[in-house]
Amino acid sequence: MKAFFAKMKGGAQIPPRMPMREILCSFLGGFLGIGTCGFLSHYFFEPRDLVLIIGSMGASAVLVYGAIKSPLAQPRNLIGGHVISGLVGVLSFQLMPYNIILSSALAVSLAIAVMGLTKTLHPPGGATALIAVIGGDKIHSLGFLYPFVPAGAGALVLLIVALITNNIARSRKYPEYWF
What we know:
Elements: H1 2-6, H2 20-45, H3 56-66, H4 75-95, H5 100-117, H6 124-134, H7 137-142, H8 147-165
């Protein structure tokens, strides 16, 4: 038992702070990515009773603009993680619409498993699956459109902005790989 709790002490040193150039590039990407999603959502999607921006896009922005070398931030993971998790979330809600607690737990845990199986692990995908369950009537009314709009389309917008902003500075390169 003592060995179990000893693991929780950590031991590795905290990584150094990002260089200021990296921080500024991350800020620019995050601002433009989320700003573009918000603009498109407000002017083009919401008038059609759709949305483009959901909470999990904020977490994706942290990865694709701030942790660009992470395997979790690569295009396959970004797009695949959101779409797959969106599908799992919608399916979980449709199977158990009257038990939100169980539906939520199933959505997130199944999304983790399916992303793991498909090599598309993207932590914000867990939030995408959860939003499909707890997102309310507007999200629920999207049904199986939800994994594609807003989840997939929003991720695609973030990816396009990431391809531009992450490659402005000579010291940055994105993506590390596509598939």
